[in-house]
Design a protein that fits this description.
single chain; about 200 residues; alpha+beta; Ribosomal Protein S5, domain 2; about 35% helix
Length: about 200
């Protein structure tokens, strides 16, 4: 199996973010972003997608979590893009529906090389822990944009915002695991009639 790893750093006047990724991992998450609930969601993505992810971030949290959360998503997306290379042999598409107690979320992904986010669902609270709930679609959208993925998220049920968010990130991990899986029947073929998923 080919090595599918990446290490990406992004430094701005607002943040300094490094992500080390192994797509062929075991679900190990390490690191701290300084935003506790974001760490918790990244750990769900890692664990349920079986990706090894190490994130180190320093940001202007004295202002709020926006820049840090956004830049972590950007760098994580860039790491997946780099680790996937030309995307030859991958399944390309993935879909998962995940319950978290009373909450239920579904995520569908197409690693098409272009980006789009459709996010259907609402949160009742302004924040969960130290993360504004308005940032959750923004995080996934930034991740999709820099990875080159079409992502559809639907929160189908739920009363507790923590449970709804956790169901979303677990489903994101599982759908992404399915989409990035190497299909031996493709024998390294690009899964597109265009012949490319990177342009």
């Amino acid at each position: 199996m080919s090595e599918r790893t990446a290490s990406v750093q992004r430094q701005t006047a607002e943040t300094d973010v490094t992500v080390v990724l192994d797509i062929e991992g075991s679900g190990a998450f390490e690191g701290k972003t300084g935003v506790g609930f974001l760490d918790h969601m990244l750990a769900q993505l890692s664990k349920h997608g079986l990706f090894d992810i190490d994130v180190r971030a320093r940001g202007d949290l004295d202002i709020d979590a926006h820049h840090t959360a956004e830049d972590v998503a950007i760098v994580l997306g860039q790491a997946f893009r780099e680790a996937l290379g030309d995307r030859a042999g991958i399944a390309r598409m993935g879909d998962a529906t995940v319950p978290m107690d009373e909450a239920l979320a579904t995520v569908s992904i197409d690693l098409a090389g272009r980006d789009y986010l459709a996010f259907t669902g609402e949160f009742r609270q302004d924040s969960i822990g130290d993360l504004d709930t308005s940032l959750i679609p923004h995080i996934i959208g930034s991740f999709a944009r820099h990875m080159g993925a079409v992502i559809h998220v639907r929160i189908l049920a739920g009363d507790d915002d923590h449970h709804k968010a956790e169901a979303v990130f677990k489903a994101l991990g599982r759908a992404l695991d399915e989409a990035t899986e190497l299909d031996p029947r493709r024998a390294g073929d690009i899964p597109s009639t265009k012949g490319t998923l990177t342009d």
